Structure formats: structure tokens, C-alpha cells
Amino acid sequence: MAAARNRQEVSAWRPCVPGVTEVFHAHFTEYAYPMHVHEAWTLLIVDDGAVRYDLERHEHGTPHDTVTLLPPHVPHNGSPATPHGFRKRVLYLDSSRLGDDLIGRAVDSPDLRDPVLRRRVGQLHTALVRPGDELEADSRLTLIGDRLRAHLRPEAVTDVPRRDPALARRLRELLDERVVRGLALDEATGLLHAHPAHLVRSFSTAYGIAPHQYLMSRRVDRARRLLLEGRSPAEVATATGFYDQSHLTRHFRKLVGVPPGRYRGSAR
């Protein structure tokens, strides 16, 4: 009974996404954090319950519709604000994602009521859980970073989405060349000499689909052809650039409606 009252469930890992130092998922019922600091930015969402915390001698709270951004090097604590505790998902980001010039603004306004931002952070965590979806995670995190900066420094925001069909076409050609090998966002921005957020937005505006969705669509198309040739799903996953068979299955089912094995078995 005591164990049930004082539940502690945690999961932590470091994904292969630039700028993310750690992903941390936790469910605590009674645990309270003492005052402490992090070297990284802390991007926090609460999925169940609520957390109360002190930052710079001011009390704050994180209901489930809020995104909380805690700056590095600033002491804070945390404890459950509801009887049944809280369930949270946290990203720790280095200064390549958010600069130290934003620390003061984040101290003043750490809790952001923004449904679009809250949804995007949740989608990012979903992508981070799944090996092989690093391009999706990196793209989502890039747009999240832009939205966070817009909250913290609204007077400097001039990035109105604009069309750039030439840049979008060059990215599509690059993705077509790298269907199996894959493409990291930082590699694409270096080759195309474009800001990553502008690159993602330009492609999505031009083609109505995000770069990671386009890449997975091309891979699934190749997988369909190989499956109809009689090759096994495991072989096809390797041949088309998926992380493993389960990665292939997840995207194949999403785009085709059935798993690869069933699709292969339907061939005439």
C-alpha cells in the first residue's frame, strides 16, 4: 500500500537529435525536488496532475495545458500540486537551441499558455520515443524553438512564413537522393545554406507535407515494390532505410492501412 502511495516511475535517455542532452519521463505521487539547478534549458509538460515550484523566489504552477520553460543555472524546486501526484515529460536542451540571452525573459515568464506549442511538444516526445524518426524530431524541435523565442522575445519576431519554392525543390531533390541513407536536418541546412526553420516551413508550404513525411512516404513506396517481389519485411526494412522491422511496420501501416507482412501475403 505504501509503495502504491509513493509511486516513482522514470525513463531517461539521450536521443540522436542535436541540442537535446536528455529526455526524461516520470510519474511521481509524493516525491518533491529540493532546490537545484541544471546546465541545460528544461522544457516541461505535465500530462496528469500538476506541479508547483519556486523560481527566483516566486511560486509557479504547471497545469496540463501549460508548457514550462526553466532557464539554466537558475535554482528551482518542484512538488506535486495534486493529491495523486503528477506525470511529466521533460526535455533538456543546450544553448544551441536556446541562447543565454533568453534567460531573463524565461525567469519572468516560465509558464506558457499556448495550445499549439503544447501539442507540438507532445508530438515531439512521441517522435523521440521511436528510433528512426530523428528527422521528424529535429524538425519539430526546430519549430518549437522558434515559437519559444516568439514568446520570450516577441518584439524581435519578424519570421513571417514565406514561400521559397526554389529552396523547397532543392530539399526535395536532396531527400530523393538520400531515401535509404536518410538526411539529418543540420546536414540539409549546411548543404542548402538555409536556416532550419525556414527550410522546414518552405518545404511544407510548397508541397503540403513535412520533409520527414515525404522521406517516409518514399521509403514506404520502395518497400511496397520489394514486398511484392516476395522479399521478407525484415529484408525490406534494411533495404529501404528503416531503423528496423518495427519502424517499417509503423509507417507502412500508417500509409497503407495494413502491416507489411499482410500486404506481401496479398500479392497475386
TrEMBL record:
The protein's name is AraC family transcriptional regulator
User: What PANTHER family has UniProt attached to this entry?
Assistant: HTH-TYPE TRANSCRIPTIONAL ACTIVATOR RHAS-RELATED (PTHR46796), TRANSCRIPTIONAL REGULATORY PROTEIN (PTHR46796:SF2)
Keyword Heme, does the record have it? no
Native species: Streptomyces caeruleatus
All copies of domain HTH araC/xylS-type, residue ranges: 169-266
Q: Which GO terms describe its molecular function?
A: DNA-binding transcription factor activity; sequence-specific DNA binding
Task: Cite the entry's keywords alphabetically.
Answer: DNA-binding, Transcription, Transcription regulation
Query: Which superkingdom, per the lineage?
Result: Bacteria
